Amino acid sequence: MTHPEQDDRLKEECGVLGVYVPEQEAARIAFFGLFALQHRGQESAGIAVSDGFRVRMHRDMGLVNQVFTPEVLRSLPGHLAVGHTRYSTTGASVLRNAQPIYCQSLVGEIAVAHNGNLINARELREEMERDGEHFETTSDTEIMARIMVRHMHSGPEVAVREVMRRVRGAYSVTVLTPKVLIGFRDPSGIRPLTAGKLGEGYMVASETCAFGPVGGTPTHELEPGEMVIIDSQGMRFARGHDTEPGGMCLFEFIYFARPDSVMYGTSLYTARERMGQTLAKEHAVEADIVVPVPDSGIPAALGYSRESGIPYREGMMKSRYIHRTFIQPDQRMREMGVRMKLTPLEDHIRGQRVVLVDDSIVRGTTTKQIVKMLFETGAKEVHVRITAPPIKFPCFYGIDMASKGELAAAVMTIPSLCEYLGATTLGYLSIEGAVEAVGRENGRFCLACFNGKYPISIPPDMSKHAFDDPPEVGQMAALANGQLRLID
Ligand SMILES: O=P(O)(O)OC[C@H]1O[C@H](OP(=O)(O)OP(=O)(O)O)[C@H](O)[C@@H]1O
Ligand SMILES: NC(=O)CC[C@H](N)C(=O)O
Ligand code: SF4
Ligand SMILES: [Mg+2]
């Protein structure tokens, strides 16, 4: 089996949602909402529901449409639901760690869906185990679930405040109790979360793109440290914790989130077009066509073309049906992987000086193969232009880069990386250019993987498999004293 650690691609994070729809079947609505969040995690999916009295749940490994059938949805009655799509960052990718995480105690039951990653999971869990708490998973999310369930008898506000007081890290969370739906965002506001209306009811989701398909309307992007409580009284917002340094993950704007989502009041499609425009200003070049790496490079390539006046042309077709999970990790298959996914359009490429626009270079494997493919197809020149500034540091806040010991831009200078890619020239958008394109003048962003300034400090022994025994790991990277080092 392919262990996710061995796959070198930049990984998504997780998608969370919650719906509260009096008189309606919440599971069915959550199911369609989760389709819109599938890009945020493809390892497992789950929905927990309540009919006002009892919490029921179904989750399994796989994509949303593999996990849920009409029969399964019928077995989940109730008007409240939370849902999750997972890409693991703490705890192996196995069924018991799939989300929502369910916890029961003498005072009640809850189901928790989490996007993000906790920094102090190890110390908290050790402390809680010393206090007699028993954990059933190896995921960091269960820590939040257990803190919450212990305090729910004092009301949801108190329970959320207690979580925010104790955990450190990135978390956008939706929680279901038999009668209440809760959403909250960490005090740094690293991961997105938006609340809104859904008919006579309400909805909370990682991204605004989940609202449209189920007829919802996003109305409020949660502030860092803010919570939303939804019950029979309606929807109310409350502060859970003072705002702390940090801000929204810049990578959400560049790549992770769907382009039809809105964050910080900005359409991500428009932000990505603007990134392409700025990239054209920062790294102009004489060329014949601007070609996107589909699909993620398309808006930026359009922006680059508009700004430079160089015509936009599709240069390769992407197979819609080859899912990345099927791509094997050994080098030969990885190289095949790009060919299996992308086929060049020879008529468009042959004899052309190409500006190739993509969102990011992680290890560089993908870009290297695309450049090679374009030259083999007859391109005269290939000028690579990338909208993510060079990624030099791993992410510990919910994006799986921590396992990469080979961030191309961390181990090579730009000229040597250009040579490694086999490109004619290579240009990256600057951090300032990317932030400016989002258009939030005094914007709060996490920029740690670009500049190494971690808004929430990272302990040296951070490990995805802190609680997996035996650890199901290969080589992992950690940041210790500002230095990237490998741990087994
Ligand atoms: O580690 P590297 O080899 O440098 O990979 C970087 C590429 O990986 C991602 O695309 P991916 O093919 O994973 O999926 P996408 O279709 O969502 O863009 C990203 O958009 C870059 O194109
Ligand atoms: N990518 C994420 O947001 C992961 C959430 C959580 N840390 C988990 O591993 O399940
Ligand atoms: S380190 Fe990078 S990927 Fe991780 S949250 Fe910060 S900006 Fe996003
Ligand atoms: Mg891509």
Automatic annotation (TrEMBL):
Pathway connected to this protein: Purine metabolism; IMP biosynthesis via de novo pathway; N(1)-(5-phospho-D-ribosyl)glycinamide from 5-phospho-alpha-D-ribose 1-diphosphate: step 1/2
Keyword Ligase included in the entry's annotation: no
Enzyme class: transferase
Co-factor binding details: Binds 1 Mg(2+) ion per subunit. Binds 1 [4Fe-4S] cluster per subunit.
Residues of the Glutamine amidotransferase type-2 domain: 14-233
Alphabetized Gene3D superfamilies for the sequence: 3.40.50.2020, Glutamine Phosphoribosylpyrophosphate, subunit 1, domain 1
InterPro entries registered for this protein in UniProt: GATase_2_dom (IPR017932), Ntn_hydrolases_N (IPR029055), PRTase-like (IPR029057), PRTase_dom (IPR000836), PurF (IPR005854), PurF_N (IPR035584)
Pfam families according to UniProt: GATase_6 (PF13522), Pribosyltran (PF00156)
Binding site for Mg(2+): 296, 358-359
Keywords, comma-separated and alphabetical: 4Fe-4S, Glutamine amidotransferase, Glycosyltransferase, Iron, Iron-sulfur, Magnesium, Metal-binding, Purine biosynthesis, Transferase
Record carries keyword Magnesium: yes
Catalytic reaction(s) noted: 5-phospho-beta-D-ribosylamine + L-glutamate + diphosphate = 5-phospho-alpha-D-ribose 1-diphosphate + L-glutamine + H2O
Taxonomy, superkingdom: Bacteria
Gene Ontology molecular-function annotations: 4 iron, 4 sulfur cluster binding; amidophosphoribosyltransferase activity; magnesium ion binding
Cofactors: Mg(2+); [4Fe-4S] cluster
Catalytic site positions: 14 (nucleophile)
Residues at which [4Fe-4S] cluster binds: 249, 395, 446, 449
BP GO terms, sorted: 'de novo' IMP biosynthetic process; purine nucleobase biosynthetic process
EC identifiers of the protein: 2.4.2.14
Function, as annotated: Catalyzes the formation of phosphoribosylamine from phosphoribosylpyrophosphate (PRPP) and glutamine.
Similarity annotation: In the C-terminal section; belongs to the purine/pyrimidine phosphoribosyltransferase family.
Entry protein name: Amidophosphoribosyltransferase
